[in-house]
Amino acid sequence: MPLPSRVSAPDLIPQHVFYLHGFASSPQSTKVGYFRDHLRQHGIDVQCPDFNQPDFSTLTITRMLDQLGADLARLDGEPATLFGSSLGGTLAVLAADRFGAQIDRLVLMAPAVMFAKPGHHLLPPEKVEEWRRRGTLPVFHHADQAERDLRFAFYEDSLRYDAFHAAVRQPTIIFQGLHDASVDYRTVEAFAKTRGNVTLSLLDDDHQLIASLPRMWTDVRAFLGLDE
């Protein structure tokens, strides 16, 4: 299926692509590998910052933004395209607002645009209170296949940000699963509805969107101008 005409992507094929991985994920995720391999066939290298470093327990959105900002600064003002998955999608939206002049377009997959806000079931209130009392929360880390502690500062810091109302003016495509148990597709629909620069594709898939990768690549390829 061709990319819907609602979004006009920049004319130039991207020279710098960053893939922002999801929460408790890593640069070794399935989607990172898929897009990295396919973009490499078009001569495009993908950078994937590891947001688990220097330590997963001290992760915050602020740290992620600062890490990405440092990477962007090394481009000497050249534009970058951001891919973002789940919490990485949240980060991409916030980065498009903060570093707007340097971000030329966004590819978002199940972006948690209501992260830690009403409408996103990060944790029930009683679990948040337990996290606050204990100071840390054990989180299953998919890349490590083991539980890792995460400090409560992650939750407190996340409340500083509002991706849903961020100023995103770049051409954007979003892929969202209708059976996503982590990100409610209706909140993503509402995010896209008020932005004429955003095209949303609702897919018969879950949060991981693995089954939809070939379909997504078809749209991404057109969006990045790789079919010409």
Task: Provide a descriptive summary of the structure in words.
The protein has 228 residues and is an alpha/beta fold. It has one domain: Rossmann fold. It is built from seven helices and eight strands, in the order E-H-E-H-E-H-E-H-E-E-H-E-H-E-H. The strands form two sheets. The protein has a six-stranded parallel sheet, with helices on both faces. Strands 5-6 form a two-stranded antiparallel ribbon. The longest helix is centred in the first third of the chain and has 13 residues.
Q: What is the beta-strand fraction?
A: 15-25%
Termini separation comes to 16 Å
Number of strands: 8
Largest beta sheet: what is the strand line-up?
Answer: 2-1-3-4-7-8
Mean pLDDT: 92
The CATH architecture can be given as 3-Layer(aba) Sandwich
CATH topology name = Rossmann fold
Could you give a short account of the major beta sheet? 6 strands, parallel
What's the CATH class label? Answer: Alpha Beta
Number of helices: 7
Poorly predicted parts: 1-6
